[in-house]
Amino acid sequence: MLNRVSLLLVLLLAACSTTPPGGPAVSPVSSQGTRVSDLPDWAGQNVSDSLPALLNTCKAVARRPEWSAPCHAASRLNGAGDDAIRRFFEDYFLAWKAGDGRSDTGLVTGYYEPLLNGSLTRSERTPWPVYGAPRDLVTLDVPASLRGKAQLVARRVSASRLAVVPGVSSPRVGEYDVRLADFPGDNRATLKGRLEENHFLPYYSRADLARGKGLDSAPVLAWVEDPVELFFLQVQGAGRIQLDDGRFLRVGFADHNGYPYQSIGRHLADRGDMRLSDASMQGIQAWVKANPSRREALFNVNPRYVFFKLLPDSGEGPVGALGVPLTNGYSIAIDPRYIPLGTPVYLATTWPQTSRPLIRLVHAQDTGNAIKGPARADFFWGFGTEAGMQAGRMKQSGSLWLLLPRGTKPGTSQRN
């Protein structure tokens, strides 16, 4: 499962991490579902391009009772034309327009899988390390009933995890003192830290790590050419690195240092170095190129640091929160409190920074912390530089229709 959200919003607003499914399903603006054939421009859509994403979804949802018949029928559609695939959706689904009761349009942003150039060895051309999770990075999950306490005691339960010792006010041998106020941000559910004598302390910030603290125990997975692209790899949480011999390494999110994300785009705007509307990936890259001596200070504004792990490269897209590979241009991230993972979604928006319609049938296969609300989507553009350019520019208004299996109403669909 990837740790990703909208590229534009993560630059401007919030941290990225995958949001677990849960909560209420969407309350549609209309009280009843409508025929799929009544969707705007439905007859003009090349729905066959959406079929691979549907078949991937069925790998995860086919055992749900409401999905059994649609997925069985979909398995017979390989090689079918647009007319047959349109009839399939018309026969097996009803459309429900997403909204919050006040508006039936929302924000559509974009994300992508970055491509970096790199090597397995450090060189003058590739001096920037991509780190795996440090061995001294330890996680403590704090029970909800104890998050208001000032001080806890914890003990090690594995090499990388602690557990709270209930009913104890001071550490004994082999136990650690935990002062919740020492930890950054307002997240008291999961703490990331390190052990020093009998204390559990916050892990090192990005600035600390840039000075070499804590990295003696972190494996280097690869070395890359460009520190700016490495920063955006951390923003996206996954990507590929092309090595000297042409091979690709696929890396994905392994862990982070426990600090909340701070927006470098907003920081530049607040300082008057850039208009907020220009704080896209491309805008920030251009600013860093023009101000190389300020690069490290800018990056250190964001204390959050992401560590990676090597992933098998199947040749398909990265795996999203549904547990299946994402399909370029046909997968979206949604808020699973409102749209169940696996749902086909008819999306009507516009191409980045234009009024040209972008209307297609996509599939809810991923999630993200900045993706909040029933009519909110993050559009997966795919892999590489061009995909990154589109994702970095995308901040469009759009409408979403959920296609739910007939007999299923919003709020009753089961989750994976």
UniProtKB/TrEMBL annotation:
Biological-process GO terms, alphabetical: cell wall organization; peptidoglycan catabolic process; peptidoglycan turnover
EC top class named in words: lyase
EC number: 4.2.2.n1
TM spans (from-to): none
Organism: Paludibacterium paludis
Keywords: Cell wall biogenesis/degradation, Lyase, Signal
GO cellular component annotations of the record: outer membrane
Annotated SMART domains: MltA
Pfam families: 3D (PF06725), MltA (PF03562)
The UniProt record lists the keyword Kinase: no
Entries under InterPro entries matching the protein: 3D_dom, MltA, MltA_B, RlpA-like_sf
Reactions the enzyme catalyzes: Exolytic cleavage of the (1->4)-beta-glycosidic linkage between N-acetylmuramic acid (MurNAc) and N-acetylglucosamine (GlcNAc) residues in peptidoglycan, from either the reducing or the non-reducing ends of the peptidoglycan chains, with concomitant formation of a 1,6-anhydrobond in the MurNAc residue
Signal peptide feature range: 1-22
Residue span, Lytic transglycosylase MltA domain: 115-309
Protein's name in the database: peptidoglycan lytic exotransglycosylase
GO molecular function terms listed in the Swiss-Prot or TrEMBL record: hydrolase activity, hydrolyzing O-glycosyl compounds; peptidoglycan lytic transglycosylase activity
Superkingdom: Bacteria
